[in-house]
C-alpha cells in the first residue's frame, strides 16, 4: 500500500477501510459478506447511523468499519470488492472515506471529495483512487460530483415513491 495512503488508513492502529451505504436498509450485512478478494477482516464493526434525515432514513444508511491488523496489505482491490458487494442486491450508493469525515450535510460534496477514496452505484463498477494527490484534483471532484448526482437521484426516487404510496 502506498505510504501516505497507509498512514491515512492506519491512524488508529490497524488498517481501517470505512464504507458507507445508502439504500440497503438499516440492517447491516453479516461479517461473512466481507470475506472478499481473498481477505478476511480482523475486525468488523457495522452499524446503522443515528439521527438520519428523513430522506435517508427511508432508504437506510449503514456504516462499516473493516479492520486488518496487517498494515502491509494493499487494500485497493478489497475496497473495490466491498463497494461492489454493498451495492449488489439493492439500488444503493456507497462510498469509502477516511475515518471521521462523515457529516449528513456533506455527503459526497466538493467539501469532502478529497476525503473519499472510492464509490459505487448499483449497476456500475466501483471507482477507487489510491493516489492522495489525485484525491485533491479536479478530475476526482468531478467524479465525486457524479456520485453525488446518483445519490440525489436515489433520494428523489425514494421521495416520489413515498408521496405516491401516501396518495394511493
From TrEMBL:
Protein name per Swiss-Prot or TrEMBL: Uncharacterized protein
Organism: Streptomyces avermitilis
Source domain of life: Bacteria
Amino acid at each position: 500500500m502506498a505510504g501516505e495512503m497507509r498512514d491515512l488508513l492506519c491512524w488508529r492502529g490497524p488498517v481501517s477501510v470505512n464504507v458507507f451505504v445508502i439504500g440497503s436498509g438499516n440492517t447491516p450485512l453479516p461479517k461473512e459478506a466481507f470475506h472478499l478478494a481473498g481477505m478476511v477482516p480482523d475486525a468488523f464493526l457495522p452499524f446503522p447511523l443515528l439521527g438520519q434525515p428523513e430522506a435517508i432514513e427511508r432508504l437506510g444508511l449503514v456504516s462499516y468499519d473493516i479492520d486488518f491488523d496487517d498494515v502491509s496489505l494493499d487494500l485497493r482491490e478489497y475496497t473495490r470488492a466491498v463497494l461492489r458487494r454493498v451495492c449488489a442486491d439493492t439500488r444503493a450508493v456507497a462510498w469509502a472515506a477516511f475515518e471521521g469525515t462523515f457529516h449528513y450535510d456533506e455527503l459526497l460534496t466538493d467539501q469532502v471529495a478529497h476525503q473519499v477514496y472510492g464509490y459505487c452505484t448499483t449497476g456500475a463498477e466501483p471507482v477507487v483512487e489510491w493516489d492522495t494527490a489525485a484525491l485533491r484534483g479536479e478530475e476526482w471532484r468531478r467524479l465525486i460530483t457524479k456520485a453525488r448526482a446518483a445519490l440525489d437521484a436515489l433520494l428523489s426516487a425514494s421521495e416520489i415513491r413515498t408521496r405516491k404510496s401516501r396518495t394511493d
